[in-house]
Specification:
Layout lengths: L4 E3 L4 E3 L9 H9 L7 E5 L5 H8 L4 E6 L2 H12 L7 E5 L2 H7 L4 E6 L13 H7 L6 H11 E12 L3 H10 L3 E11 L4 E9 L7 E8 L7 H7 L7
Parallel strand pairs: 3-4, 3-6, 4-5, 6-7, 8-10
Antiparallel strand pairs: 1-2, 7-9, 8-9
Helix pairs in contact: 1-2, 4-6
């Protein structure tokens, strides 16, 4: 998927200077998050700004994207400036906890495609390290920020590797965030789960909605469910 410019149906993402390129995780999260009634949306770790633009496309909300990488901020700012919804999107160079402690506005939707790699040996690319490894945004810091910034009726959406789910849910519960919807992502039927989409709120729900999504059929073609989820964005469907 990575290339210098990724074209969606209603916008394009330039990514030549951003460490983390547009990937399936970001597109899944942006397509899945429910922002139908949102007025204020926060994208933590916005990177190229792809999720912020996806959410702006399907809502009338004000969208704020934050990131600690100067390169990501420059790239996201460029992408926002060229999109239809630029007057509703703001990009800020700040870390999540600092923003949470200084921002007085609460958000009814928060999204994050967080770094999740925890290897002791980091890759040679310093910028890519920052984007991919939890040292730059530990789960605990992310969830503290979400707890401070999320409105009482709001929802927090994220995507994680399947193996990180239990730890993340435990940490979220300690911050007063309760899981109400999860979608287990499989690359192909018969293969192990790869990712999980999670939705949290400050309200405890009476039941947990749990779904599955398969991305590819046995022959390698995209599943109907995957096409339907991402069809508002992808050009090739």
């Amino acid at each position: 998927m990575p290339k210098d410019c990724f074209k969606f149906k209603q916008f394009q993402i330039k990514q030549e200077i951003c460490a983390m390129k547009v990937g399936t995780d970001a597109v899944l999260l942006g397509a899945w998050a429910n922002v139908a009634t949102a007025k204020n949306i926060l994208d933590i770790g916005t990177g190229t700004g792809v999720i912020a633009l996806m959410l702006a496309q399907k809502s009338t909300a004000r969208v704020v994207g934050i990131d600690i990488s100067a390169e990501a901020i420059a790239q996201a700012t460029e992408n926002v400036a060229e999109c239809t919804w630029k007057n509703r999107i703001e990009i800020k160079h700040i870390d999540a906890l600092t923003y949470a402690k200084t921002e007085h506005l609460s958000f009814d939707v928060i999204v994050s495609n967080p770094p999740y790699h925890t290897e002791q040996v980091l890759c040679p690319d310093k910028l890519r390290d920052i984007a991919r490894h939890t040292e730059s945004l530990p789960f605990s810091h992310l969830l503290q920020a979400v707890s401070l910034l999320l409105s009482s009726q709001g929802a927090f959406y994220t995507i994680l590797p399947y193996w990180a789910e239990t730890k993340f849910i435990d940490l979220a519960t300690k911050e007063g965030l309760h899981l109400f919807h999860r979608v287990t992502i499989y690359g192909k039927e018969g293969k192990p789960a790869k990712r999980v989409l999670l939705a949290f709120s400050k309200e405890e729900k009476t039941s947990l909605l749990s779904d599955e999504l398969f991305l590819r059929n046995a022959d390698g073609t995209d599943t109907t469910a995957y096409k339907e989820l991402t069809s508002p964005y992808y050009l090739h469907f």
